[in-house]
Specification:
Elements (H helix, E strand, L loop, with lengths): L5 E3 L1 H7 L2 E6 L9 H10 L3 H6 L1 E4 L3 H12 L4 E5 L5 H9 L3 E4 L4 H15 L2 E2 L6 H17 L5 E5 L4 H13 L4 E7 L5 H7 L22 H10 L2 E5 L1 H15 L9 H7 L8 E6 L6 H14 L3 E9 L4 H11 L3 E8 L9 E9 L3 H13 L6
Parallel strand pairs: 2-10, 3-4, 3-6, 4-5, 7-8, 7-10, 8-9
Antiparallel strand pairs: 1-2, 11-13, 12-13
Helix pairs in contact: 2-4, 2-7, 4-5, 7-8, 8-10, 11-12, 11-13
Length: 381
């Protein structure tokens, strides 16, 4: 297990006016905090339990954490993953020594298969978050934060099933009850706000987020007991905030971070929190499929006002397209892609529809470009 670094973030500090540091669990072995809990859980198994092996269900990070931990301890492992799991995560889990079985379209369906295998064979099910040993393992993140930043005033943590947040809260509040601890969920997969309001775990009605690492339908019972008692607040962030935060980490911090890992950064940059003093933002993971990274980066550029796509109507005569491109050039917009279409309900015979994607400098520049296109008659409002 690695002691992950704490890195000062100038860009976040400037945004909120606080001293901000990043706890980089994306630089942990297997690319996330997950081996901490998995290793502790598996290391505490009896000799008989070890002989039967372990089984888990995961879309990626927990899978790799279990596979690596089992390999280190000389134990066989099987991991059930959804059929839509990212190929790099499947390959990495196999590379760490696990037998990978693809079953179901969601992690919940994969977990059903893992439970069935455990009941049939005696293999020990290693739950991703709902076990005391898992929470205790994740608590080592909190221990390191206090050691590396003893005068920390607030800690912001991504929140899915609750293992990481519960562990950090348990470790930190025991020594520093004055530290503010905040959990962050994706708004489109947020089971915790209602669960905390109702006083018991409640499953989310729907989940549709790019942050698959924290897309958990129901909070764990074990983490819930800690979080409901020790955590100061839980907030949610939008998909736009997640993609913008991921892009910010890539560009300014030079860190590859997955959407779930960027959730705490998203809450800080979106202005959702009232923070003061010294703040630690936990970056929980960096395992992202390169194809997803490309999509999320484009999403982030759009959300940050750096990428604009518009559909313009131009004359289907020589010089029509040139006039559009020259206007964009004069306004400082760099063309990325152009697509023509002569088929649209509101087009006249001498017109063509052009969908153009351009790079812009920010929201104000986007408004300037749109205004210029509209005044020139290229946009039909």
């Amino acid at each position: 297990m690695r002691r992950t670094p704490m890195i000062a973030s100038r860009v976040l500090a400037e945004k909120i006016g606080c001293d901000v540091w990043l706890k980089c669990e994306n630089l942990q072995r297997t690319g996330s905090f997950k081996p901490r809990g998995a290793y502790l859980r598996i290391s505490r198994l009896s000799g008989q339990e070890r002989a039967r092996g372990v089984v888990a269900a995961s879309a990626g990070n927990h899978a790799q954490g279990v596979a690596w931990s089992a390999e280190q301890l000389g134990i066989t492992s099987r991991v059930y993953m959804p059929t839509g799991a990212a190929l790099p995560k499947i390959a990495a889990t196999k590379a760490y020594g696990a037998e990978v079985v693809l079953e179901g379209s969601t992690v919940d369906e994969a977990l059903i298969a893992a439970r069935r295998f455990s009941e049939e064979t005696g293999a020990v099910l290693i739950h991703p978050f709902d076990h005391p040993d898992i929470v205790a393992g994740q608590a080592t993140v909190g221990v390191e934060i206090l050691d590396q930043m003893p005068d920390v005033d607030a800690i912001v943590v991504p929140l899915g099933g609750g293992g990481l947040l519960a562990g950090i809260a348990a470790a930190v509040k025991r020594k520093r009850p004055d530290v503010t601890i905040i959990g962050v969920q994706a708004a489109q997969a947020a089971a915790w706000p209602r669960s905390l309001a109702d006083g018991h775990p409640v499953a989310a009605i729907s989940m549709n987020t790019m942050a698959d690492g924290i897309a958990v339908a129901r909070p764990g019972d074990v983490p819930f007991a800690h979080i409901s008692e020790l955590v100061d607040s839980v907030v949610t962030v939008s998909e736009e905030s997640l993609s913008t935060a991921l892009l910010l980490m890539l560009e300014r911090a030079k860190l590859v971070v997955e959407p779930a890992g960027a959730a705490a950064v998203a809450a800080v940059t979106a202005g959702r929190l009232e923070l003061a003093g010294k703040v630690c933002v936990v970056v929980s993971g960096g395992n992202i499929d390169p194809l997803l990274l490309s999509h999320v980066t484009t999403h982030g550029l759009t959300a940050a006002g750096r990428f604009l796509t518009v559909t313009a109507t131009v004359s289907d005569r020589p010089g029509g397209l040139i006039a559009l491109l020259e206007l964009l050039r004069d306004r400082g917009a760099s063309v990325v892609d152009v697509v023509h279409s002569r088929v649209a309900d509101d087009l006249y015979l001498d017109e063509v529809q052009v969908t153009v994607s351009v790079e812009t400098r920010g929201p104000e520049h986007q408004r300037e470009v749109r205004r210029a296109l509209s005044e020139a008659g290229f946009l039909r409002e």
